[in-house]
Input
Amino acid sequence: MKIKKVLREFVKGCSVYFDFIKEVLYFWNQTRKYNASTNTFKDREKTEYVLLRLNHTIEKGMSMRNPRKGFGQEKVDGLLDKLDRYYISFFTENPNFLKYPLSTIKQYIEYTKDHGVDIQHIECKYNELLSKTGFAEVERNGGIHKVFKEDILTKCNIDFESLLFSRHSIRYFSKEKVDKELIDKALELAQRTPSACNRQGWKTYVFEGENSINLVKWQNGARGFENEMRNTILVTANLKAFLSYEVHQAYIDGGLYAMNLINALHSLGLGTMPLSCGFKCSKLKTLTVFGIPKNEVPILIIGFGNLEDSFNIADSSRKNISITNKFM
Output
């Protein structure tokens, strides 16, 4: 009987590891084939996603408190080269795609020239590409615009639609201290997030002051406005909550929670800035310096704070649902 029991446990253990290996190999194969890092400019969709990311770096730069004079010229120059490459390969398939990044670059040119910087070489490239597309002009649907605290506070709690449309990613905040009761309230609201079998495997860590700035510097995606992030919440997911075949569930549950927390903070009148945590394993291992256990994976860092009376935000134009949805 003892031998049978040992064998059963052995088979059960092997089955768990086999399931885990199958899931990992499947995901590795999917990533190898479809990840945007490989054969990027041979695939229209991959190219578009990469160009949207590069375009957003320009919007981010313009939406900071005090952008460096003449910033981003090398990035804009490189983006124009890639947009021209897109024009050659994919323009006939999706001509409207170029309108958004061209709109951002147009605003960048106006913004930079207004600050007394000569960027004639970029303007010439832009005009040349615009001429190729046949667009008489591009409507403004990218870049930045100014919003006001009073408008946000008026709209953020009218209804769910107003909550979503009044929230923006904010890159600078007032120096007013955030009330701890507001943070606690946001955490309580986010606790209503649905999770797989109600396991609630998420964890949160609230950072303030220099600790918060150091966390954002570790993340390394907020260069130019790290010092604005004096309040952050790191959302993690506990891997102990999930089974061998649930290799992605930690990120799903953690992502759902993080979005609810962002909306909760916004509903309470605070500004937010999500910072992603998609890193190589060598970087993830260093998260322990902040006291995060190895069994937890970082999902998102949320920078937050009290709103200035007015501030610039990136437009971050949204795709039409006809592009992202299909009725089956």
Remarks:
- DSSP finds twelve helices and six strands in the chain.
